[in-house]
Amino acid sequence: MRAAMRRPAVIAALTALAVSLTACGSSGSDTSDASGDTYTIGVLNSMTGAVGAVGQQEHRGMEVAVEEINAAGGVKGRKLKLKTEDDQGSVNLTTAGFKKLATDAKVPVVIGPGITANAMASAPLAEQYGVTQVLLVAQPHIANGKKHVFGVPLPGKANSQAMVEYAKSKGVKKAAIIWANTPYGQEGNKDITAFAKEAGIEMVSSEGFDTGKFDFTSQASKPAAAK
After folding, report:
1. String of DSSP letters for 40-85
2. N-term to C-term CA, the chain
3. Which of 10, 123, 170, 204 could form a disulfide with 226 if both were Cys (CB 3.0 to 4.6 A apart)?
């Protein structure tokens, strides 16, 4: 569900970045390959690890956008190319990957990462190196106040409110939430619970789960018992 909601944002972000490259491409030194016929965009995300399935779907969305843009003639006659670093969900690999993209590959733009803790660790590096970073997380406070950092997904609070409003429109009186025990899930649990209270929906249970296991059996037993 989360990946499905973020894929359109990924494609939209890449399309917008392609347009922005026309402005910074005049210098030619930091945005294109030595041949001068390609714009390289950095991608920093979890391609493997616990949430690798999400990162792979997002990466495919970027590949689709690149294929479509290149088929239409590219940007100012140049093709787009992705340079990808897999952080495997590790904060340490995120910072290492960002530094590699910024200093070795010298990309002008980095898309990702898609995990809150990793985004918080890499955002200061975008400011340090002057590299534009487009985050794939729904916590706007990470980008707020920063010159080079932006976010594309709808804020988590807006997602939470939309889900509760939909439930209310369907006549739901009781609900339960099973949330990932991560900063994203913790914030979502808090927001959904608050919006549910305002909407008059009783939350019969609220259970977190370990994202490394993806096993909801015990968490699902409580709402099942509450029917």
Report:
1. EEEEEE-SSSTTHHHHHHHHHHHHHHHHHHHHTT-BTTBEEEEEEE
2. 23
3. 204
Task: Indicate the pTM of the whole model.
Answer: 0.72
Lowest pLDDT segment from 82-96, 116-130, 202-216: 202-216
Residue with tokens 């406070």: 141
CA gap 95, 117 in Å, rounded: 11
Tell the residue number behind the tokens 């649990």, with chain if given. Answer: 189
62 exposure class (CB count in 10 Å sphere: 0-12, 13-18, 19+) = buried
Q: Which two tokens stand for residue 176?
A: 């339960």
Amino acid code (one letter) for 101: L
Q: Which residue has the tokens 């080079």?
A: 148
Residue 76 Rama label (left phi>0; alpha psi -120 to 50; beta): left
Residue 178 corresponds to which amino acid? I
Contact status, residue 136 vs residue 202, Cβ threshold 8 Å: no
pLDDT in tens, 94-105: 999 999 999 999
Cα of 89 vs its chain's centroid, Å: 12
Structure token digits, residue 94: 């995120």
Strand intervals (E) in the chain: 38-45, 79-86, 109-111, 132-135, 149-151, 174-180, 202-209
